[in-house]
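2 proteins. here.
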Amino acid sequence: MNYKGLLVVVMIFLFVLSVSADEDYYTVLGVSQNATDAQIKAAYRKLAKQHHPDMQNGKSEDNEKKMAHINNGIMTFI
């Protein structure tokens, strides 16, 4: 793993640790509580395409925050 990849992993890990445990990640990902793994992964991919800062014309802090929540949500399920 290169330095940049390692930095991203560390940043995601630190973010996951900093977010409160009572957040409803099913709602963040837009799936029901009885969703299958495939449904959760599909919802994550769809939201990641919509909100990823690199996919937007300009970097938006709003999209970066949404993407951080989406990443945190998927990290609780995998």
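next one coming up
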Amino acid sequence: MRKPASFYFFKTKPIILRNRYERWRGVADLLGFTTPERLRVEWMVFYYTVAEENVTLTAQHFSISRKTFHKWFKRFKDFKYDVRSLA
């Protein structure tokens, strides 16, 4: 009697991906970002999560100017949301 084909292969474990904000923080950890660089990553995380894409709220929360946030956000967006652009 033959065994089913699934018997001969390893069952795959599901891949659980972290959300993108946790990945951004993880990349910053791996690259050894300094404190100001990590803070810029937190600006982006806050902007997308808590502030719901509100620049004014993000700038007020971190006590930075909107112009400064826009400068870093443009760089982040131009590099296709690559965390390395915040270094």
